[in-house]
Design a protein that fits this description.
Blueprint lengths: L1 E5 L6 H10 L3 E6 L2 H9 L3 E4 L5 H9 L3 E4 L9 H19 L5 E7 L22 H8 L7 E7 L2 E3 L6 H12 L2 E4 L5 E6 H14 L4 E4 L3 E5 H12 L3 E4 L4 H5 L3 H4 L8 H7 L8 H6 L7
Parallel strand pairs: 1-2, 1-4, 2-3, 4-5, 5-6, 6-10, 7-9, 8-12
Antiparallel strand pairs: 9-11
Helix pairs in contact: 1-7, 3-4, 6-8
This protein binds NADP nicotinamide-adenine-dinucleotide phosphate.
NADP nicotinamide-adenine-dinucleotide phosphate binds next to strand 5 and strand 7.
Length: 295
């Protein structure tokens, strides 16, 4: 298939492109700058200039493709409303451009569907704690219009060497503070997946997932935040200690809303449907091996 990938130059996108190419697809990466274009070309994909904020460029790119993997996202947490609206319009535009051809439309969600309980692929995200939940429904609506939409839900950390996401930030916070902290008693859990395992779920979903499938790209169901802090402390020779609930926000900043949440999730249905088994290092193994030394 001819697959357009938005966010092809990003962390997960740059690992997904090689998986799609290896599966035999023709891959077109959307680039909004020369630097992104070079990165995508370096991955062996075709480059198409475009911007998530330029809907005509999305329409044109998806219009002559068989499917779309929509990984692009504006991660400016200071203006989440703008990022959400950009994402909503992008999904609408991409879905419309694919109408009637039966091809895949992959959009992204989070696994924190039912905080405090092990969430599964069949759970419906509660819009209250999950502002992007409606975007999965938006994509699923295109199933009635000749598209094969699916949501790939990622855990809070899609880790690996070169990751500049949440775990890199946790490492920086720990180094700056002089200790590796965990919220409260540290029993709240984060699921996790290595970026190469995550990329494989996306590529397998493109080939195998039926319309309206939610996939959970996670290898570990729930690592306690205390265990994560201990791994950071061990690697960077820092003491490890609890951060009192009233200090969590001041200590972790905007990351507090994620790191203080209990978000266990399972991926049993995804493994069964796709025949997928993660085989990359765990989060603690990555930390111990120095994958975040450059954070
Ligand atoms: N990484 C994680 O741990 C994690 C966890 C849960 C969910 N997710 C979700 O997974 C998806 C991919 O995440 P990621 O970690 O790969 O993100 P990332 O590394 O921040 O990459 C974002 C990508 O989006 C592109 N992009 C941003 N704004 C754009 C715009 N206006 N026009 C065109 N392209 C634009 C970026 O292009 P440039 O190269 O030009 O900047 C980049 O390719 C996102 O939806 C993210 O929210 C990620």
């Amino acid at each position: 298939m001819r697959i357009v990938v938005t966010g092809a130059s990003g962390w997960i996108g740059s690992h997904t492109v090689p998986e799609l190419l290896a599966a035999g697809h023709e891959v077109i990466g959307l680039a909004r700058s020369d630097a992104s274009a070079d990165r995508i070309a370096g991955l062996g994909a075709e480059v198409r200039r475009g911007d998530l904020e330029d809907l005509a460029s999305l329409r044109a790119a998806a219009g002559d493709a068989d499917g779309v993997v929509h990984l692009g996202y504006d991660h400016d947490f200071s203006d989440m409303a703008h990022a959400l609206e950009t994402d909503r319009l992008a999904i609408s535009t991409l879905g419309e451009a694919l109408e009637g051809r039966g091809g895949p439309l992959v959009v992204i969600g989070g696994t924190g569907v039912r905080p405090g309980q092990v969430s599964t692929e069949t759970d419906t995200p509660a819009p209250a704690g999950n502002p992007r939940a409606a975007h999965g429904d938006l994509a699923f609506g295109f199933a009635d219009r000749g598209v094969r939409p699916m949501v790939v839900r990622f855990p809070p950390t899609v880790h690996g060497r070169g990751d500049h996401g949440f775990v890199a930030r946790l490492v920086r916070i720990a180094r700056d503070a002089g200790f590796a902290g965990y919220p409260g008693d540290g029993t709240n859990r984060w699921p996790a997946v290595h970026v190469r395992d995550a990329a494989r779920v996306v590529a397998l979903g493109v080939d195998r997932a039926p319309a309206r499938t939610a996939l959970h790209a996670l290898a570990e169901e729930g690592i306690t935040t205390r265990r994560i802090a201990e791994a950071i402390g061990a690697r960077y020779d820092l003491p490890v200690r609890s951060v009192a609930p009233q200090d969590v926000e001041a200590h972790f900043g905007w990351l507090a809303m994620f790191f203080a949440a209990d978000l266990p999730a399972s991926s049993g249905l995804t493994r069964e449907l796709l025949g997928w088994a993660p085989d990359q290092p765990t989060l603690v193994e990555d930390l111990a091996a120095g994958a975040y030394d450059g954070a």
